[in-house]
Specification:
single chain; alpha+beta; 12% strand; 48% helix; 267 residues
Length: 267
């Protein structure tokens, strides 16, 4: 029980730290002109000042500083909405801000298990399909997906969408000139999940592997960009199938909302 409470407390502190980093990153990217403020005196750092954000949101400066410092506070829904407006957050960023401020008793991450019925359904689909977990581990797939992405040829410890796309030279060849856009979008999408599990050993280990295996990752991660998961298109140059243009959509499983089903359709 003590270990569970310790992990929960560490996770809460890490999440508060990510909240502070997120707020600073959104504040730094704004200019006075963008929010209708005069430039005023010379600024030492880019972006808005803390007192300017607090004033725009209609909250106390000291209270806002506590948020950025990762100190324990519980903002109301009205305050979260006011901060989202002040910082010009997108819908995905607004949702992320809300989730970061929610109090949760999060235990250590455990890799998900795909229910047999869900696995069988995926395996019988004619279209390429696979299932990922909360940490983006690839947990199940069908033959059509294996023919494209070669999941069965990847070691279990490496069978993770982020590791595969960001650290494997074969993925750079597969996506060609679109690799940077694909990889950076994945990082922004993963950020929304990671921050809720910040400090968890499994997520720390994943970040360490991404930093070591992808030279571009650290710079992308520091921008703290957050993006929602949405349908899209991928164009890949497959060594056996040639040029493939695919449309993909994703769904959550009712059995376990942490499981995400991804289906590809040729276009």
């Amino acid at each position: 029980m003590t270990d569970v409470l310790t992990n929960s407390r560490q996770g809460e502190l890490s999440r508060q730290g990510e909240l502070g980093d997120f707020l600073r990153s959104r504040r730094d990217r704004l200019t006075p002109k963008a929010v209708g403020l005069p430039d005023g005196r010379r600024r030492r750092t880019p972006g808005l000042r803390r007192e300017e954000v607090a004033d725009l949101a209609g909250i106390g400066v000291d209270w806002y500083i506590r948020l950025e410092q990762g100190r324990s506070v519980s903002p109301s829904a009205a305050t979260i909405n006011a901060l989202a407006r002040a910082l010009r957050l997108s819908k995905a960023e607004h949702r992320h801000l809300k989730e970061l401020t929610e109090t949760t008793d999060r235990r250590a991450f455990v890799r998900e298990t795909v229910p047999p019925a869900v696995r069988r359904t995926v395996e019988r689909l004619n279209l390429p399909a696979y299932i990922t977990g909360r940490r983006w581990d690839v947990l199940a797939w069908n033959e059509a997906a294996d023919e494209i992405f070669g999941f069965s040829q990847i070691a279990d410890a490496d069978r993770n969408s982020l590791i595969t796309v960001l650290t494997k030279p074969a993925s750079r060849r597969l996506f060609g000139t679109s690799w940077t856009d694909v990889a950076r979008r994945m990082v922004a999408q993963f950020r929304a999940t990671h921050d809720l599990w910040a400090g968890d050993p499994a997520f720390r280990d994943l970040l360490a592997r991404l930093r070591d295996g992808c030279p571009e990752f650290a710079g992308w991660w520091e921008t703290h960009d957050v993006s929602g998961v949405a349908a899209g298109h991928k164009s890949i140059s497959h060594p056996k199938k040639g040029r493939l243009k695919l449309e993909y959509v994703s769904f959550q499983a009712n059995d376990d909302p942490a499981l995400k089903l991804v289906i590809y359709t040729p276009v």
